[in-house]
Amino acid sequence: MSLVQFVEQTLGTDNAHRYINQLLETVQERNPSEVEFHQAVREVLISLIPVLSQKPKYMEHAVLDRLVEPDRLISFRVPWTDDTGKIRVNRGYRVQFSNAIGPYKGGLRFHPSVNASIIKFLGFEQIFKNALTGQSIGGGKGGADFDPRGKSDLEIMRFCQSFMTELSKHIGPDTDVPAGDIGVGAREIGYMFGQYKKLVGAYEAGVLTGKGIGYGGSLGRKEATGYGAVYFVEEMLKSAGLGFNGSTVVVSGSGNVSIYAMEKAMQLGAKVVACSDSSGYIYHQAGINLDTIKRLKEVEYRRCQDYVLEHPDAVYVEGCSGIWTIACDIALPCATQNEINKLSAELLVRNGVKAVGEGANMPSTLEAIDVFLDNNVLFAPAKAANAGGVSVSALEMAQNSARLAWTMEEVDLKLQQIMHNIYSESLKASQDYGVPGNLVVGANIAGFVKVADAMIAQGV
Ligand code: NDP
Ligand code: 2IT
Question: pLDDT digit string (tens) for 57-75?
Answer without folding.
Answer: 999 999 999 999 999 999 9
